[in-house]
Amino acid sequence: KDEVNQTADLVVIARVAAKALGEVQTSGEGEDGEKPVVRQHEALLKEGFKQVGAGSGGYAVYQYNFRAHKLSPISTSTLLHVTPYGPSITDVMPYYLVLEFETSCDIRDKKWSNSLANLELRPHKWEGPQVLEGYCYQGAFFSPHHFAELKE
Predict the structure, then answer these.
(1) Which of 44, 77, 110, 142 is a plausible cystine mate for 146, CB 3.0–4.6 Å?
(2) Mean pLDDT of 108-137
(3) How far, in Å, are 7, 107, 114, 116 from residue 127 at the CA level?
């Protein structure tokens, strides 16, 4: 895939994740018209995101198998990094999202017979995975500059 198509695919996945995160409800009983509690991992699991890691401050990593076309037998593994991003806006906590296709950054020859000296002499071009970052607020995905405008 070319770079533009990959980034466009990540935007599609970001919108799916944002919609799911818009369903997160951290308080409530489900009584008296209040929404029942919906945990982040539960909301994302409904959309196909499997939690594969977590860290401090609410950070979590999810894996998602993306198919560019619904009938395609080939899926691409995608990582979603989610972190709460405070302070809250009108009592709703936004999320900072980073999406990346889970691909190897190592483009060296896979032959271990190559010496390190030969590897150092050749020009290296580091190619990392395609990455998309942005913010999720009330079920919508925003690019960083659009989110900055929203906060003002």
Answers:
(1) 142
(2) 62
(3) 15, 8, 20, 19
